[in-house]
Amino acid sequence: ALAAARAAAGAEARLADGTRIEVFANLGSVSDAERAVAAGAEGSGLLRTEFLFLDRDTPPSVGEQTAEYQAIADALQGRPLIIRLLDIGGDKPAPYLPIAAEENPALGLRGIRVGLAHPQVLEDQLRAILGVRPIGVARIMLPMIASVGELRAVRAVLDRLRGELGIGETVELGIMVETPAAAATADLLAAEADFLSIGTNDLTQYTLAMDRGNPAVASGIDGLHPAVLRLIADTCRGATAKGRWVGVCGGLASDPLAVPILVGLGVTELSATVSVVPEVKALLATLTIERARAHATAALACATAADVRRLAREFTA
Ligand code: PEP
Ligand code: MG
């Protein structure tokens, strides 16, 4: 039934040679989901769930969360919905999740670390996602993974809850690649995760050691920096060796200059900002995998982000 609903859900993005690339949209609300469907998105590769948790005194209940996730899944009409677990930290505090003042919030308690430090919050969110029907349409994605142990800890909770709830079906559990550690160990993570999705905003921040919110270093922050591209290449190599797909849900997936390079590096799912979904699909239709691979190889040999951008402009011209 899931497959039939998906097939009916509309145009599948393909390269000119028929290579399949999924084009998904990043969402933060039910209305985003409606806009995404209208724009031709094939699903959501990133639902940022922070909107449910911020600006309130108590965490949302399991029922409240399930209702929101279900409404978004319903708006997607059978298309897959990848729900990212809560990704807040010291820089985005919630009163019911006390986090001591930190000198370096970006390097502190954030992403999956918060869920592991507050097991009830993690368990409630997993329970809420397991409540979405049909089972399997909602997949789970973990932010800020740095170690296989974090993935194992969440999988153990997920398996226990599936047992308690009598859910025999598989519910996919994937991870975000946002730390150089995750990129360097992509093969190890892919052995235990159902998919990998690269968060290029944070991966760029952590690779270049440049705060993504600091205007003094903003001009140096570019996801097309050769160091970031090499980590994306490593991620694709590691995941492909274990038979797992790699997506990109960070800003590079919405950058027309980056898309051919990502595809050439082995990325097969792009989750973009809703407004650029049609442009990304149209751009993919002009590419062949052979040309994209040659272009990516050339990009990997560039010395600077500016060189990569120059090459990318020539490629699309
Ligand atoms: C990212 O880091 O690229 C990402 C998609 O997550 P966020 O922008 O929400 O940190
Ligand atoms: Mg991030």
UniProtKB/TrEMBL annotation:
GO aspect biological process, one term: phosphoenolpyruvate-dependent sugar phosphotransferase system
Keywords: Cytoplasm, Kinase, Magnesium, Metal-binding, Phosphotransferase system, Pyruvate, Sugar transport, Transferase, Transport
Localisation per UniProt entry: Cytoplasm
Cytoplasm as UniProt keyword: yes
Location, primary (coarse class): cytoplasm
Source superkingdom: Bacteria
A molecular-function term among this protein's GO annotations: kinase activity
Keyword Glycoprotein: no
GO CC term, one of those recorded: cytoplasm
The family this protein is said to belong to: Belongs to the PEP-utilizing enzyme family.
Protein name: phosphoenolpyruvate--protein phosphotransferase
UniProt organism field: Sphingomonas trueperi
Lineage start: Bacteria, Pseudomonadati, Pseudomonadota, Alphaproteobacteria, Sphingomonadales
Residues of the full protein shown: 510 to 826 of 826
